[in-house]
Amino acid sequence: MDVTVSPNNPVPLYEQIVEQVRAKILTGELKAGDPLPSIRQLAGQLLASVITTKRAYSELEAEGLIITRTGLGTFVADLGPETIIKLKKEVVMEHLEEGVRVARQLELANEEINCLFRQALDGSDERV
Amino acid sequence: MDVTVSPNNPVPLYEQIVEQVRAKILTGELKAGDPLPSIRQLAGQLLASVITTKRAYSELEAEGLIITRTGLGTFVADLGPETIIKLKKEVVMEHLEEGVRVARQLELANEEINCLFRQALDGSDERV
Amino acid sequence: MDVTVSPNNPVPLYEQIVEQVRAKILTGELKAGDPLPSIRQLAGQLLASVITTKRAYSELEAEGLIITRTGLGTFVADLGPETIIKLKKEVVMEHLEEGVRVARQLELANEEINCLFRQALDGSDERV
Amino acid sequence: MDVTVSPNNPVPLYEQIVEQVRAKILTGELKAGDPLPSIRQLAGQLLASVITTKRAYSELEAEGLIITRTGLGTFVADLGPETIIKLKKEVVMEHLEEGVRVARQLELANEEINCLFRQALDGSDERV
DNA sequence: GTGGTCTAGACCACA
DNA sequence: GTGGTCTAGACCACC
């Protein structure tokens, strides 16, 4: 499983892992029942500590995205397709709503916020 | 000056203060040259320590939004209107771009992202 | 006597006054025995407090540049021309030596320091 | 890392630390990616408080010279060689320009200023 | 172990 | 009165 982390990234290591594994599950790259690499294996691959990797898995399990079966390993949980769609929206909405909240606080008009959003969308489009 | 903070908020106290004072300056509620409350006064009002409020003011000074003069007090810096507009956009863009980045990672189509943004905008509209 | 201070200048008010009066004495604009404005008069003119002005005069008296005769007023001290020349050099040297000290700490070669000095000299020349 | 501070020095402790670490980075004694001593370790070594050393590191991070990673430690940032050269010049120029400014205020001729600078350069040379 | 935040309280410089 | 520096010491998050 290709997961890459960077110690220069201000986001905590365990969060970087969580974000990427979550993305793989929500996009369907990892499907229900698929086995995840063992904590030790992933830690070795990422040059991270076992504790850090373990914390990432704990976080994902708390979110209900993965299930740990002691002795067997860790597996992707069985979420219905509607649940997946709902989760995707939630993750994205958090950031967009925060942006809108700040924009309102700065008393920007809807039209202005719209314009900024379009820039954000186009800007990332070029890079894709 | 009405600033309110919550110790339960995971955002550090000093950051909460920074955000609110910054908003007041960028919206023009506080104008160039206006005096800010003294750090001791604000600390008392917020039930925070003098050092915490001082830290907030230091951050704002590092951003160039305020100027502190020992013995005199703290004052709003004189930013041109273009600078203000630029700063407002930057603050909002940070969040919107993060939202778009995450959406792309989850392989959402532009149309879907657009739809979510519209929900975020409308959702906050009702509350306004 | 034309002295101007700015509260926006990070240099303390009393220091701004000291620097300007010192310059007037060392350049000969103010000569030995010349009377200085009274503390109250100067304070009113500068929109500064009497205490601040008094502190500036105390500083100048401690440097031996002025003499206060109770009841009569404050007067420029009688320094020989060699003393004046020596003082001028001292004031300038403080800054230049600090610049050279820092340059040495950063391991700049003499040639490089020379080049920077020339830039500093030329840069201010244009503005004159 | 050999850093020495003096509580008698009118320059604040944290500024003394900043200046020395900055010099080590700009001269290349500390290279990109190199770890700095932990704030606790440096505090013990300098007989200063943890907060004072932390403040020094915070300043250096605000200048972009170092990067702190919670749980990992503090590291020298990766500045290009041109940036390093530019920063070195800036630091030195501040002082030289101030010297020239004061010299002009005292109505010294270019030739005289030049002479003083030469003395400053030679004077420090002997000590080297 | 690392850094990040918050606290209380002292002393100094400036106006 | 204002802000600036320094202190000791506590608790939390991350690795």
Write structural notes for this entry.
Four copies of one chain form a homotetramer. The first copy, chain A, is mainly α and about 130 residues long. Chain A folds into two domains: about 15-75, Winged helix-like DNA-binding domain superfamily/Winged helix DNA-binding domain (Arc Repressor Mutant, subunit A); about 80-120. In chain A, about 60% of the residues lie in helices and about 10% in strands. The first copy, chain A, is built from five helices and three strands. Chain A has helices at about 15-25, 40-45, 50-60, 80-105, 110-125; strands at about 35, 65-70, 75. The first copy, chain A, has a three-stranded antiparallel sheet. In chain A, a hairpin with a 3-residue loop joins β2 (about 65-70) and β3. In chain A, α1 (about 15-25) crosses α3. The longest helix of chain A has 25 residues, at about 80-105. Chain A is elongated, with a radius of gyration of 18 Å. At the A-D interface, loops of A face loops of D. The structure holds a DNA duplex (15 and 15 nucleotides).
